[in-house]
Queue: 2 jobs
Job 1
Amino acid sequence: MPPRLRLTGITKRYAATLANSDVNLTIGPGEIHALLGENGAGKSTLVKIIYGFVRPDSGEIAWEGEPVQIPDPNAARKLGVGMVFQHFSLFESLTVAENIALGLGATETIAELTKRIEEISRRYGLAVTPTRHVHHLSVGERQRVEIVRCLLQSPRLLIMDEPTSVLTPQEAEGLFDVLRRLSSEGCSVLYISHKLEEIKALCERATVLRGGRVVGHCDPRISSEQQMAEMMIGGALPVAHRTSALHEGAPCLQIERLSLPADEPFGTNLRDISLTLRDGEILGVAGVAGNGQKEILAVLSGERLSPDAGSVRVCGTAAGHLGPTARRRLGLAFIPEERIGRGAVGEFSLTENGLLTAYGSGFVRGGLIRFGAIAQYARDIIKRFVVKAAGIEARGSSLSGGNMQKFIVGREMGTNPRVLLAAHPTWGVDIGAAIAIRQALMDLAAAGSGVLVVSEDLAELFEISDKIAVLFHGRLSVPKPTNETSIEEVGLLMGGGTEAGASPVVAHAA
Amino acid sequence: MHEVEIAVAIAVATLRAATPLMLAGFGELITERSGVLNLGVEGMMLMGASVGFIGTVATGSPILGLLLAMLAGAALALVFGVLTLSLMANQVATGLALTIFGVGFSALVGVNWVGTPLQGLSTDIWPSLSTAPPMVQQLMLLDPLVWVAVLLPFVVQWFIYRTRAGMILRAVGESSDVAHALGYSVLRIRYFAVLFGGAMSGLAGAYLSLAYSPMWSENMVAGRGWIALALVVFSTWKPLWLALGSLLFGFVTIAQFQAEGLGLALSPHLLAMLPYIATIVVLVLISRDATRLKLNAPAALGRPFHATA
Amino acid sequence: MRLSLEARERPARIMTWASPLLAAVGSVIGVSILFAALGRPPLTALYVLFVAPLETLDGLAELALKATPLLLCAIGIAIGCRAEVWNIGAEGQFTVGAICGGGVALALGGGGAWWLLPLMILAGIAGGMAWAGIAAFLKTRFNAHEILTTLMLTYISIQLLGYLVHGPWQDPDGHSFPQTKQFEDDALLPMLIEGTRLHVGALFALAAVPFGSILLGRTMMGFRIRTVGAAPAAARYAGFSRNGVVWFCLLLSGGMAGLAGICEVAGPDGQLTPVISPGYGFAAIIVAFLGRLNPVGILFSSALMALLYLGGEGLQVSMQLPIAVTGTVQGMLLFFLLGADVLINYRVRLRPARAVAGVARHA
């Protein structure tokens, strides 16, 4: 039997970068094939080529032995390629059935389609309700809608781009069952992920990309995670070290019985949240996106004020009524989730981006900006955090995601905060930078500051946190010391399990 | 009996005053539903008004005049489309430019036609006019474009919520990136929506110069394009609400005549402020609930789209 | 082959300056076609439009005179645009500024007091600020979009002026013309150059250039403004109050437009009439964009726009072209600029034509 898909010598160049260089890839029928590589290794370009978004500059695509061209996604779908995107391609304001109808480009009526959706959904155990609006759905449900949409087209190759980054470990297990079942029915799967333990559990072959080239193949069932990681980064894996032991410091950040309705459409209401972060401690907040992470961070950073000043305390001072500037003055710093557009301004130079939050630290006199001083500050950050940039005048948007993040981390740490909030600090950052950032967070805690890390990456939280709490539907579980809990237990809490005291409602007798 | 006659007269006048707002408003509603904010309605209406007027006088055919007006509006919309869709210019700035250009160019084109008399749109579309009771006659004397405007909300409502094309339009307006990812041609759909909006604005302008007050004068649209834009916001992009808003505004616009009817001696200048003040009041009422506005607005409104390929 | 756009890795700085030139060239070509279509010799018309006004001292003074309100309004508008606060009702703030300042002149003029002119100017600024302040209040309190509110306020202000000059403020000896009395001499701005109409208002306008530059480039307030405009989420994150910036921008641009308004009526006009502006407030929007929302750039673009006004008047006199030519050319200029600006962030590439959609198998 010819391979389902064979790519030969695929090359794609963007203005200055070679995104794919002479890439070969072969996927057999029914094979679950992993595509590995760091950010910027060329995975997404390659996937875009297979799905018809991007046309390669040179190279051949053969589908079941026959050479083909894939000029657009419709052509890919006609061949039998289905794709589940990392950022879901669903329309919030439309119903599930409407969304699927748009994805199929078919002429059947919504009623006919609804029947077919229910059929597929039963067959694979993918629970979806066709009449619901997408904005009501959880991320897990959304992913199921995407998968159902693909399955309705009877795909022979399914591309999954980082599918588990938004799932609880248990949901991910369920997804793997579906994928294994598809594979047994002869559908090939191209699986893209940076979670090596998943790849070991699921995939039978792997192709590793680095700098746009194929640098190796392996059998993930045999190779170790360490070996695969080293193939991806092309060198020995650096390790982060925790430099201090646990100790009970004074509380530096407290939330007390805070409930707050969402201020955005489709936002999450915060329900009776209590939390204490102590000096020298790293507290990890786990949870699936959309369970109140954005909201709790906004209420801590001061971007959103709480009605009761005392419900948030920064270093002992009631701060619920204070805006971000005043909280920064109390010693709080914040690394937000979005880099360009929130943590930094794309059109601004690094100097100006340094000023963005450091302006309170003596860089403004009489309303005038002290450009010399702030430039020096930016230069120091670049040096200390090894930010790759064309200099302090480089625009924020010209930096890679990882380097921008290092700059933001450096800027927030540069003011010696007593409390640091970090949202998804290493998301989308290459391995080297991620380790540097984790190290910086741990060093800050070792120096006596409190660090609150919100992340979807459980492995990361378990690596750096002293305690872990879980957000679910706007409620925060009681933090547990990391060595007294497990990924399974946290996973259950992420999915709404109530054991182990997920609802601390009765904890306070007010 | 007298009161009933006055009520019918007011209803007729309200409908007539609401018609240009509905025509332009529904054009803009479709444009905005596709995710494009065209602030050039006023300019496109002016072009429609002058070209429609000239076309009708020159050819003697109001139908041709209306068609030319729609073409003129669409032509201006095409300029907007090329700049904002293909060249990704800022939609707000380009819309403003469109209005500034439309004000000037319509005046330039129409300069020799100021004061030319015109009979107005023919209203005898109904056969047995003379046998009908007088009040029905009044309604039947409404020109055909008013009837188009009356039907429009229902047609647009059906199109947006009941057809596949309408579904695609809503989808593109919510997320151009997702629509693109699914293989829809975002630009083509947006071009259609923008051109439709332009043609409808042209039609609305022509209604003013051919039917509402059959004549051409510089800047005769007098802010109705902007009011139509405000009404689209007021409607939270829902067709039936847009119709309601237009009727409300039609009613306010004829306040001048009502005041005269009631024997109020107010300065015409102060009365002429009313529609603008009403626009502000309506905007305030509707914008106050920011969440609701956000919930209903096409999410991609005003954002440029560039396929990264 | 077909044209396609490819995003640049960083904006081309040279294009920031080349694009207005490109736009100017495009406009000259467009205008020539327009003149030809109107049956006028394009070259002669271009000469009348762009060169003739610059040939005399009087012409230059008139240029500065017309550039004054444009410059004042445009710098205010541009500062707002940097924060994505779209004050497109400068025309209305100009009008209310003129009404307020003019009201002071009518009420207190003739006494020869030294404080009369300063008071008029302050009243003009306050009037413009108050008018724009309404929009700021509606925006910050009720979230009502300033594009629509400032514009509606413009229509209202024009009716207000109409009401005043037709009604309570009408000159009783004016043969029922809709106009006020002529201002007394002590309520008129001093002239800068004898024999011309250029008055000291031009100095305010000139001073606005360094003021705007320093504000935007060197001060924390300017940094806040630019952050709110470039990335609202970053501004919220940094702790910059959006409402504060909205108030600041609208009050500042309103005050500058009001200053322009009172300078106009206390300068060349010397009285209030129903039409005190040939659309300066709207043209200033074009001026602001043409000048790249940069005060120094606006200095040049306001001069260009003033030239268009003068040239348009020239065309009206010597070639019997309607004054509407000015607005048409202004709009065209802005179109070309907006179109040419794409080159700053994208480069144009020639690409082979796309294959027909669908799967092309070449087995």
Job 2
Amino acid sequence: MSPLWLSSGLWVAAAMLAPITAGAETLPPTYAELYKPHGVDEIGIWQDADEDERRLTASPRVIRDEALTGYVKGVLCETVGPERCKAARVYIVRTPIFNASMAPNGTVRVFSGLLLRMRSEAELATVLGHEFGHFQSRHSVKLFKAERGASDVLSWAGLLAAMYPGRDTRRMFGDLRYSVLGHYFRYGRDTEREADRISIGYLNAGRLRPQVASEVWQHAIAEGLASAAAKGLRKPRYDTIAFADSHPPNAERAATLAALAALEGIGRDDGAARYASAMAPFLPQWLDDQIRLNDFGASAYVIEHLAEGGWTAPLWLARGDLYRLRGNPRDLVAATDFYAKAVALDPQLADAQRGLGLSLIKTGRRVEGQAALGRYLALRPDAPDAATIAMLAKEP
Amino acid sequence: MLRGKTILLLRPTIRVGAQSTGGMFEANGTWTEEARRNIAVALANVQERLDNRVVAAPEAYGDANRLAEEYGSLFAAVSASVVNYQFFKGNRLPTKKRDNKADVFDWSVGPGVADLPGARDADFALFIYDYDAYGSTGRKLLQVVAMLGPRIAISSGVHTGYAGLVDLKTGDLLWLNADTHMGGDVRTPDGAEKRVRELLQGFPGSKPDPDTAPAR
Amino acid sequence: MMRRLPTRRLFAALAVAAIAISPGHAGNALRGRGEAVPIAGSNLTITPGRDWNSLGVSPGKMVEVWTLDGEDLNAVTFYAGIEAEMPLVREISKKRLPLPKFRRQTLLADIPELLEGTYRARRMIATFHVTGATPESFLGHDGIRFTFDYVEEDELPRRGEARATIIDGRLYMATFAGPRLYYYDRSLPDFHALVEAARLR
């Protein structure tokens, strides 16, 4: 075999990467009524997604609350329109991370960690519109093909490098690997940019304030900074692209979305009040799920961000728990103060009385602490830990 | 001897696709559907020879569906434990090693399986997992060139399956087979029949086979 | 939106089995009936009433995991004298993924939350509930007994029970966990027998 092989291998590489950007634009839209997937890859991906959804319907992590699911679905329908919305089935999944996804077959997964971080219907619409953008542009199939193209090329190139193990070949393989993988990741970021543009398009055409879209990413940046600062890590960069980033930098997304938001929409409602009342019953649980991830900076940011609309008893409770669970002596003093504020706003909030009692005892104020634990037991005599707390409340 | 019984076939997990040149799995919907059909027919045929009747578990909804899924997860966990801690040489648990010597196979998912949808009218439940990735032309070419050239062994195709039989009265696992190099092309009826015979090797009531689980 | 999460459980079980068998790690050891053995080289000693297996891999220096059928089905985890300001198990990254610490101020009543926080932070799970907590002695000292439910990545709901005590500023704890279908109930008496057979030398 001659070195010609190598160059023809590279030519194959270029040819395989070409279809990535072509796409199949003549197909009917994915949200067409009773849409059937086209081509081997799309059919296969749909079948996988159907199997995943079958399991999801039985998953112990799905929050089966019709009002909540109906509300989120309603925001999606309002965003993309009732016809397109028929293609989507929404599942709320109890997972404390900031994420959502829409599978090629129309399965929408919205994580509780995302709902905890959104401030308004307009913010939720931004994220749902983005996911719908991936769905309507068939990004899953396209990314799959791109990944396959890249891995095919690298397999051949790796083999050829092994066959001609000279230093030059090695270096060429190295260069090729970077260029092929770089192309793949860049393509992934481009699909994210496209989904962002689709999303802001929906918001501009809708009834909610599109300027809010940019805030989603501003808050994500602020939370990331807060998390890193509390851990004593170097400040993360949000304006540069790491080689393997799947998404464009948040700062770029925030700027682009701000620029693309229609000016005439600036006076519109953002639906913050409706959003807050729909989420209210779930907030204490989701706050607790977040706090116990032990990411102090991120949790503190989420709580303070929620409190911009005013501190409530559940928010003071969450802040108290956050500090008590970190448990440095100064944290316990701070926690005592936060629980006291929660109790002042809502004396019936049993968990706040419990936290207050435990923090007071640990900071040497036993008598006051035992009184708070007594109030906890009076409010919730059948609490799972009643016997343990009762002993602590009585100890001399 | 297991003959003249009714076997409840729990919805098999089947994924069939191709393996791209770079080794990625490409799900293939048509193949998967063909395999699902072929495997069901082959199962019925093989069991008919043992005088057993195979009935598909009814489609379940709501709580019944969640229970069926939870048992599916439990069965997967038990199977992994059997493979990891009793079959597999390197990592056996000492107590399971001793079981092997005494020819003891003591695993169960518990008597609660009697509540599974369709369990009341059957004697045994059969769990089946099948995963096939057929090497694409590109992958096969890569394999050949790698062998001819620098003598690098690249695998083409992945054919993994496992199957287990559970007593619906006690929940005891009567038999389990797991294989990572299975034969038979599940995309054709004949191939599926070969695959099912391999998968059911050592199935209670079938001809004794020296290669049978759990004595491996 | 940010990351596409793989949701494929199907062959995860077998894949895990294959990975766990990487050669080179210390083997699993028999803990024979009637033989007194120290846990993780500490002063905590168990004399089991039946044969158990001790896993060759452990999540922490002062931690040992025992099982009858594999840790996914029944796992007894002994924490043998965790020192103040230390996490229960080894941290994957001290800086990026810190775990909650056992503190000097930690009370018996706090221990369920310490275990809960460790599970959640280490495994990124949302579903964990402490279902009961009562005072009960352990190793002859004042202690706590608590129960919990949780769901992990494999979506197999599990149940657990734990006993703990604090002696000379160190935490001693034994936990038991298994799938709520069958396994938890079946081996709970075996766990109780181990707790009864635990001594401090």
